[in-house]
Amino acid sequence: MRKLSILLVLLLAASFVFAGGAKEGKELPWKPTKPIQIIVPWSAGGSTDQVTRIVAGVLEDHLGQKIVVVNQPGASGSVGTKGAWDAPHDGYTWAAGAAADLGIYKLLDFFDTTWDDWELFLNVANVSVVAVNPDTPYQTFQDLLDAFKANPGKITVATAGQASAGHNAIEAIKKYTGIDYKHVTYDGGNPAVIACVAGETEVVTQLAVEEADMLRGGKLRALAVLATADLSIQGYDQKIPSINKWIKKLVSAPNYFGIWIPKDAPKEVIKTFGILWDTVIEDNTVLQEYAASRGAVFDPSWGKEAKKKAFPFLQEYAYVKYDAGQIKMSPEEIGIPRKK
């Protein structure tokens, strides 16, 4: 209930603070004549769903049309994304999620697309947090690491599925430590977090934004963040230590999230959303507050800049899976070189 209350407050704030047209009176080249649909290819309450609903609330005041967010989970986000692709490319159907997921679907043989087929509009960057059920004996990440090594393949880890941020996080840990684990998958980040809270699994490695409320409420214990610096979350009384304290070689890039539209959509549609990103979204205080309260980084961009920012995590993500034997096609075949 608390999470829903926070999101409702943010959405209401968005509608009051940003009513009216684009800032500085900039004329928009496209005016939609019917509602726009954004497909969130994950379940309600997860990282993509949270931020997409806030962005939709901000944008619809400027477009003069309702933006409907539809949850369509399945196959690690590829089902909903393909649904957006199969719809008419007229600007009225978007997809949302993590940019790296979009960039890797072809490698996983989930959906024959790469992010070069889409125009990206990013809003926040997220980091994964290794957290445990408070009833487990693990007080530090070293405790958990020791337990993984002593019980290979037995400690349960909840994630949102094979192509999720949580799975990439635990696979990166596996790559650099040699541990093994028992993977338990759910339809989204929020269900994975709730499962760990309920004791269905011992560990969850989803994003900080998905874990924040449970950390503040004492329902989860954070052990490490996959970032080079310690992480602070408003209302959580301790910094979450960087995983580099234990695994120095694991250098994780930011995982960027946003919404996207097929690249061949009408040019005036893409130009309109570019203007909105450069004006309304760029310094949006509601999104800034959301990011600060949930351990995310507010860093909007679109077009070539967006892909440049998101590419380091895509590189990392693709080669973690390739080196683990989870994908057969080399990432180089779709233009993703290995980091030097």
Write the layout of secondary structure elements.
Elements lengths: L1 H16 L18 E5 L6 H17 L3 E5 L6 H9 L6 E6 H6 L13 E9 L2 E4 L8 H10 L5 E4 L5 H13 L4 E4 L3 H9 L5 E2 L3 H9 L4 E5 L29 E8 L4 H15 L3 H10 L2 E6 L1 H20 L17
Parallel strand pairs: 1-2, 1-3, 6-7, 6-8
Antiparallel strand pairs: 3-10, 4-10, 4-11, 5-8, 5-9
Describe this structure in words.
This protein has 340 residues and is α/β, with parallel strands linked by helices. It folds into 2 domains: 2-125 and 255-334, 3-Layer(aba) Sandwich (D-Maltodextrin-Binding Protein, domain 2); 129-245, D-Maltodextrin-Binding Protein, domain 2 (3-Layer(aba) Sandwich), CATH 3.40.190.10. It is 39% helix and 17% strand. The protein has 11 helices and 11 strands. It has helices at residues 2-17, 47-63, 78-86, 99-104, 141-150, 165-177, 189-197, 208-216, 267-281, 285-294, 304-323; strands at 36-40, 67-71, 93-98, 118-126, 129-132, 156-159, 182-185, 203-204, 221-225, 255-262, 297-302. It has a 6-stranded mixed beta sheet, with helices on both faces. Helix 2 links the parallel strand 1 (36-40) and strand 2. It is globular.
